[in-house]
Automatic annotation (TrEMBL):
Protein name as annotated: BAG family molecular chaperone regulator 2
Keyword ATP-binding: no
Organism: Muntiacus muntjak (Barking deer)
Keyword Chaperone: yes
Molecular function GO labels: adenyl-nucleotide exchange factor activity; protein-folding chaperone binding
């Protein structure tokens, strides 16, 4: 009888220790789960800062190369460029890096996708129209929506092999390149229009002198 009571107390002690360890483990796991949410929030915030930096640099560059900048006096243009360069310099002082964890296969897919985009970019000056069409097919390959034009199936399979964060970065880069092409095309058309208007004015003045 006494032996049974001793055995019961021993089992009770083991149960208490086991229960206490389980509670402690559960609390630690809950803390780690909460920390994981904060870590992901930190990465998202840092990524948002990276994207904002890219947008700001693009906007500053766009202003510097805008048609409006060509239609003001040299003094005003110089002053505005100084301001733009100062803003660009301050923007570049912000350095945020969010490293993406990749498998060897994902790393290779990223290199392949980057190489394809770089090859298209290198042909901008030779054939802007064809470069735009090619970029659109690459961008359609990254879009989850039904594309309006053709899709580069090979590029799509390569992008799918990239890490999710890299897929988003590839899509953002293509969006930026397409915007730059659109802005360049508008600037060229405006310049051609201005030249055409100037030539027409000169011709009208010449006709007026002879009449």
């Amino acid at each position: 009888m006494a032996q049974a009571r001793i055995s019961a107390k021993a089992n009770e002690g083991r149960f208490c220790r086991s229960s206490s360890m389980a509670d402690r483990s559960s609390r630690l796991l809950e803390s780690l789960d909460q920390l994981e949410l904060r870590v992901e929030a930190l990465r998202e915030a840092a990524t948002a800062v990276e994207q904002e930096k890219e947008v700001l640099l693009e906007m500053i560059h766009s202003i510097q190369n805008s048609q409006d900048m060509r239609q003001i006096s040299d003094g005003e243009r110089e002053e505005l460029n100084l301001t733009a360069n100062r803003l660009m310099g301050r923007t570049l002082t912000v350095e945020v890096s969010v490293e993406t964890i990749r498998s060897p296969q994902q790393q290779e897919s990223l290199k392949h996708a980057t190489r394809i985009i770089d090859e298209v970019v290198s042909k901008f000056l030779d054939d802007l129209g064809n470069a735009r069409s090619h970029l659109m097919s690459l961008y359609s390959a990254c879009s989850s929506e039904v594309p309006a034009g053709p899709v580069d199936q090979k590029f799509q399979s390569i992008v799918i092999g990239c890490a999710l964060e890299d897929q988003k970065k590839i899509k953002r880069r293509l969006e930026t390149l397409l915007r730059n092409i659109e802005n360049s095309d508008k600037a060229i058309k405006l310049l051609e229009h201005a030249k055409g208007a100037a030539a027409k004015t000169l011709q009208q003045n010449a006709d007026a002198r002879f009449n």
